[in-house]
């Protein structure tokens, strides 16, 4: 019997097909890579649906495109074996249990090897997602490299613009490990050996977004923690790199030192065309892939596929930072509509004045993208933006409940960040009720009253 690697994209597709068959959409009709795959997923989203989509018949290509694998909280939660409401906590706990990796002798991507002049990235079904995009973009490329100083590796998403048969523009704008590793390589006068790995399990993608972890830990060990078992890696042929053994496609090459070229515009998670980029260049030297490889593409722009992983991982990371100091923090929500990055809503059981301000300072300092934090009491539903707005409208005294911190390092692609320094003013809003005696009392309707009301309405034949 054919065994399916549970740590792979295929393992995930099998999991969805067997446990959530209505959440897997196979499209057999022909689609074009130009705009069509992206607009199809946005149409599904407009209809309130977010299944995994497999485009089986891509014009001009024999390779199918898999997309929207991360656009659904229920499916992502099921990867961790929990209900959607518990996903941030589960992610927070598991991402701290680092498990050493297992090195296997051969990757599933070792079936087809293309090298030298035969390397031709234009043969891959790379979608051109928005009309404003400068070119087709690889959006699900997990770029892996080793720190030239310590040898510890990292993996993370970086957008990759198709520039030629063996050339991709790459933006390292999140300025985390990969940006720093490349800077260190440049300091030594070297290009950075790197591999682009396409077609991984969603838990890989979630683990790759962890920011706060000790420098001697490998991200692959964090991903192992999410799987609850050693992550299986195999050596590929560049820079002694190890990459996920179950991946679909591996592109080996290097990020050039001291060379820059225009990259972008690209439809970013902010909902805007992004012209800002670190403008680096990746040169491909070898492609390895499964014989029947899937091409995985993340839907760009403000799609759930692009944003949901950021929401969940930030919720987990902020909760992690806050719980260390403030045990009465309850939950964190990073909404999709605030781009899965720029705003966090935190609920707490406030015991004394000043606590929410302490929490908001800590949350604002967790990482560079989070620029607004709203603190609410535990009676406010942090997943209901109307309830959050009610708390802001009725509990905030602006002169003392809003703090602003100007000149803080921020996201390059945040359109409000300073175009030269890339800094923003971070803001915290304390929308918790004051502890002073006699502050207004919230209106409530008890569960008994609600049950009685429902029976009155039902007896009038009005169905709720
Ligand atoms: C779908 C998606 C696309 C992303 N694209 C980029 C990108 O183009 N450039 C970038 O620097 N970070 C991007 N990020 C964020 C990084 O992947 C993230 O910050 C990661 O932790 C960086 O890994 P590193 O520490 O190895 O640099 C993206 C994140 C997601 C979820």
UniProtKB/TrEMBL annotation:
Extent of the signal sequence: none
Record GO terms (molecular function): carboxy-lyase activity
Domain 3-octaprenyl-4-hydroxybenzoate carboxy-lyase-like C-terminal, residue spans: 311-431
3-octaprenyl-4-hydroxybenzoate carboxy-lyase-like Rift-related domain segment(s): 106-301
Record domain 3-octaprenyl-4-hydroxybenzoate carboxy-lyase-like N-terminal: where: 22-93
Protein name: UbiD family decarboxylase
GO cellular component term of the entry, any: cytoplasm
InterPro entries, alphabetized: UbiD (IPR002830), UbiD-like_C (IPR049381), UbiD-like_N (IPR049383), UbiD_Rift_dom (IPR048304)
Biological source species: Borborobacter arsenicus
